[in-house]
């Protein structure tokens, strides 16, 4: 089967106006010295977290364009990739990495060894690290994984920020108070967490969550009790969280965390070295701009690493492969998509300026081929259509995508 997906530009899902560069133009800008403003500033940002915490979604929102593949299945991101945000004289380099996983899980999913090494490599080069936690997952949200704690303890000198993601999916917002207490070990920016209740703010707002950066462990129960009473009055609570770090802060210094042996990490649920906490919903872009402005403010004087016209260090072909793979993960069951090999057979410009792409999908078994094709070719056609649409959003040109499937001989 050789379904085609011809796509024309719809309304952009992201606000960035500039298209991704063509392969030759991108390589040329990557080879040459970047343009430099008069007083350049730069910040390398590593994003760590468990698989499927939303790292690539957050990266895309920070970039303003879908550059990294996103899927509900784990291990969508399989290699370290960089996205570049250039704003006036400041450049953010976003290091999107595979989800931190254990060697046992890596073996189960037949993952490359690079998926175990890349997050650590990102930390070596980072100026700041964002630790992303999916607060909607009640199985994992109450503690940081051992892999994340190992990374943080190995590089305690790198400033770290806790980012609670998918807060829009929480019905009981006061749960965030408990999560903050547990995931920070009660300490943020070297200070015991404290918050002052602002009755005037809560009387005006339907939000049942404090404007929170610092929460006192001694006051959590009292605040939760108040939140419960308020929730009984109004069940339709909405979320309004920002990162006003000045309000409610009580100076109560605590020593900076020191590197620990890994055996001690087993007793820890959180990390006491976070400098700041952000709560957001990356999928919808809620509060992402607040985090972006914070990162821009953290940038230090230094030369830019990339030309201002570069959005990612990935080649257009790599972006194409990742987007098609994203759709394979979405539509194929269980472990099937992890065994699909992608081979680009054609990549050229058509007579009307459209991009012509042909890709071969090689599967290990005939049964996998039948699943990928689907009844009457519906699955492979849907993959081609949706992937073509995403590619068009990335490259801002007409796309003609052709996919074919064959069994590995």
Automatic annotation (TrEMBL):
<keyword id="KW-0547">Nucleotide-binding</keyword>
<keyword id="KW-0472">Membrane</keyword>
<dbReference type="GO" id="GO:0005743">
    <property type="term" value="C:mitochondrial inner membrane"/>
</dbReference>
<comment type="function">
    <text>Probable GTPase that plays a role in the mitochondrial ribosomal small subunit assembly. Specifically binds the 12S mitochondrial rRNA (12S mt-rRNA) to a 33 nucleotide section delineating the 3' terminal stem-loop region. May act as a chaperone that protects the 12S mt-rRNA on the 28S mitoribosomal subunit during ribosomal small subunit assembly.</text>
</comment>
<dbReference type="GO" id="GO:0043024">
    <property type="term" value="F:ribosomal small subunit binding"/>
</dbReference>
<protein>
    <recommendedName>
        <fullName>GTPase Era, mitochondrial</fullName>
    </recommendedName>
</protein>
<keyword id="KW-0699">rRNA-binding</keyword>
<keyword id="KW-0496">Mitochondrion</keyword>
<keyword id="KW-0809">Transit peptide</keyword>
<feature type="region of interest" description="Disordered">
    <location>
        <begin position="1"/>
        <end position="38"/>
    </location>
</feature>
<feature type="region of interest" description="G2">
    <location>
        <begin position="75"/>
        <end position="79"/>
    </location>
</feature>
<dbReference type="InterPro" id="IPR027417">
    <property type="entry name" value="P-loop_NTPase"/>
</dbReference>
<feature type="region of interest" description="G4">
    <location>
        <begin position="165"/>
        <end position="168"/>
    </location>
</feature>
<dbReference type="InterPro" id="IPR006073">
    <property type="entry name" value="GTP-bd"/>
</dbReference>
<dbReference type="GO" id="GO:0005525">
    <property type="term" value="F:GTP binding"/>
</dbReference>
<dbReference type="Pfam" id="PF01926">
    <property type="entry name" value="MMR_HSR1"/>
</dbReference>
<feature type="region of interest" description="G5">
    <location>
        <begin position="280"/>
        <end position="282"/>
    </location>
</feature>
<dbReference type="GO" id="GO:0019843">
    <property type="term" value="F:rRNA binding"/>
</dbReference>
<dbReference type="Pfam" id="PF07650">
    <property type="entry name" value="KH_2"/>
</dbReference>
<dbReference type="GO" id="GO:0005759">
    <property type="term" value="C:mitochondrial matrix"/>
</dbReference>
<feature type="compositionally biased region" description="Polar residues">
    <location>
        <begin position="25"/>
        <end position="38"/>
    </location>
</feature>
<keyword id="KW-0999">Mitochondrion inner membrane</keyword>
<keyword id="KW-0694">RNA-binding</keyword>
<feature type="region of interest" description="G3">
    <location>
        <begin position="96"/>
        <end position="99"/>
    </location>
</feature>
<comment type="similarity">
    <text>Belongs to the TRAFAC class TrmE-Era-EngA-EngB-Septin-like GTPase superfamily. Era GTPase family.</text>
</comment>
<keyword id="KW-0690">Ribosome biogenesis</keyword>
<feature type="domain" description="Era-type G">
    <location>
        <begin position="41"/>
        <end position="302"/>
    </location>
</feature>
<dbReference type="InterPro" id="IPR030388">
    <property type="entry name" value="G_ERA_dom"/>
</dbReference>
<dbReference type="InterPro" id="IPR015946">
    <property type="entry name" value="KH_dom-like_a/b"/>
</dbReference>
<dbReference type="InterPro" id="IPR005662">
    <property type="entry name" value="GTPase_Era-like"/>
</dbReference>
<dbReference type="GO" id="GO:0000028">
    <property type="term" value="P:ribosomal small subunit assembly"/>
</dbReference>
<keyword id="KW-0342">GTP-binding</keyword>
<feature type="region of interest" description="G1">
    <location>
        <begin position="49"/>
        <end position="56"/>
    </location>
</feature>
<dbReference type="InterPro" id="IPR005225">
    <property type="entry name" value="Small_GTP-bd"/>
</dbReference>
<dbReference type="InterPro" id="IPR004044">
    <property type="entry name" value="KH_dom_type_2"/>
</dbReference>
